[in-house]
Amino acid sequence: MDSNAVSSANPTRNPRKIDSNAVSSANPTRNPRKIDSNAVSSANPNRNPRKIDSNPIDNSRQRNSNFSQPPVSTPTEEDSDLIYGRHPVLSALQNQRNLNRLWITTRLRYDPSFHHCLLQAKENGTVIDEVEPKRLDYLTNGANHQGVAAQVAPYAYIELPDLIEQAKAVTDSVIVVADGITDPHNLGAIIRTAEAIGAQGLVIPQRRASGITSTVMKVAAGALENFAVARVVNLGRALEELKEAGYWIYGTAASGSEAVHTVNFTGPIVLVIGSEGEGLSMLTQRSCDFLVSIPLQGKTPSLNASVAAGMTLYEIYRQRSLNTLHLDKLQKISLKK
């Protein structure tokens, strides 16, 4: 099925009608997985699902009372609420994010770019600590803090319907979906590129993927202050919801795909980027209307996920800029004549 023909023939998706053939065009040989309801019982026919052993512990061994307590959860990077570096912290200050505490060196505190924002943050209840660089080295585990760090409230994700509503306010909007990106550096780079090029938001799955951590905020370099992120439980269901809202789903895949520069990107678009190692999952590929790829000439078999996202997003907006009527250039041409 020629994706260019479909896009040019119907650049705007019918928000009420989902074409079942669109999925098969991405991979026509793939059939939905059938689950045999008898598989469980045939694997172990003697097992009684209703019978529970009331005494699973050997009487010769006494259970330690400490074992009955719930395990103590250790802090993970997802729980981290520390951002550092001039640009991320300054962006948070300028957008009046809720900062609980801020550590800053004496030299940077009275820098003109920070001074007014710090006064405003102090009025909003932020505790400002003037510290030595060694204290910041300790707080950030030796990271490149550039003289400032801040403790922020956990990132507030947006609901998917709200993201769609915001995005639809823009003509032919673009939403990026990250399918299982586990590296926070990759996720932060995707957010930074998507916001800079002009995409309207990002969707990420809740499980088996990186959330918005302090590392993501650092790599995004302030882009998250102007870029909405929705976190969903079921990515496949989210893609169907986006289809119903009128979006065409384009997934990046090395096989069974068309070269990105030959695809006509028109109408509202969702660009799905696969994980670093495995790419798009089979279930996500079935949800895509089209699969696209970046042709490679060298011996390197694949691109970094954030690089692939940036190149594909640039191609989308390059095509749209060519189709935009630049009145200022036409006026100059008419004046020359």
Word description of this protein:
The protein is built from 14 helices and eleven strands. The chain has helices at residues 3-9, 20-26, 39-43, 86-94, 106-109, 112-123, 133-139, 160-168, 184-197, 214-220, 235-244, 282-287, 305-322, 327-336, and strands spanning 82-84, 99-104, 127-130, 148-152, 174-178, 201-205, 228-232, 248-252, 258-259, 269-273, 290-293. The strands form two sheets. It has a seven-stranded parallel β-sheet with strand order 7-6-5-10-8-11-9, with helices on both faces. Strand 5 (174-178), helix 9 and strand 6 (201-205) form a beta-alpha-beta unit. The longest helix has 18 residues, at 305-322. The model is unreliable at 1-10 and 16-79 (pLDDT under 50).
Summarize the structure.
The chain is 37% helix and 15% strand.
Looking across the biggest beta sheet, what order are the strands in?
Answer: 7-6-5-10-8-11-9
Helix content: 25-40%
Structural class: alpha/beta
Low-confidence stretches: 1-10, 16-79
In percent terms, what proportion of residues is strand? Answer: 5-15%
- Rg to the nearest angstrom? 25 Å
Number of helices: 14
Large-scale geometry: elongated
Q: For the residues shown, what is the average pLDDT?
A: 77
Question: Would you count the extended β strands for me?
Answer: 11
Order of helices and strands: HHHEHEHHEHEHEHEHEHEEEHEHH
Query: Biggest β-sheet: count, sense, barrel?
Result: 7 strands, parallel
Spatial separation of the terminal alpha carbons: 45 Å
